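ok so I'm stuck.
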Amino acid sequence: MNNYARLGDTRTAIAGVGATPTDDATILDAIEAASREIEGRLAGRHFFIKTATMYFDGSGSSCLYLPRPLDLLEVTTLKVDADGDGVYETTLTDYWLEPANRAAKHTIELKPSASTTAFTFARRAVQVVGKWGYSDESQATGLTGTVDGSATTLTASDDATGLIFAGDTLLVEDEQIHVTDVNAATLGVKRGVNGTTVAAHSGAAISVRTYPADIMLACRIRAADVYRGQHTGYSGQVSGGEFGGFSSNTAFAQFMGLLKPYMDVTF
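replied:
not stuck anymore, here's the structure
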């Protein structure tokens, strides 16, 4: 789930390193492995959007600095527990999210004009409900979808083959939906992923979650080598990695070069 490369693009990338991709399940395993290596061991951050409630220690000042490299995109509610009783009774509304000119935010700053001008200096004093992740990107498919509130199949308005792939995360209204398989206009799905709420949809536009272009390319490069190394008898290794080596120094250098800007956390 939350794969940073798409199945169709990765099939092409695998063919480019001399393998014939014939097993979509195996390719998806390679994409999953590459995605988790990128976010876990290398970048140390996730690029998908997750709706979640997070808790932080109060700073005692007007600024709450989020732990690096945690990325905040949008705040739904911001509350503080002023007396340490575990109840977040005070809702704050007058604040800025910083930096101002980037999608991912790393600081919440209370405005000087706010009635509360400092975060309570205490453990777990601040509750933030919002959307977390590096960027909020998606690609329209041109299709619409219909699904009831509990179904595990979504019916698209037309044949989705080549437009939607297994492993994709869809955005249908406010719900994120993981695709498990595609059979023409019928999609097998897992509902309400990444903290979103399951809801009925009738003729709603279907978009596919996408990620920064550098991350998607890096994932394709890595998944191609993972697939080739584990499933086509390739035994060479020029550079180490959590899931095995790369097929060439060129691939390794390109992969790391694409990831480097996301590994250097700057504010």
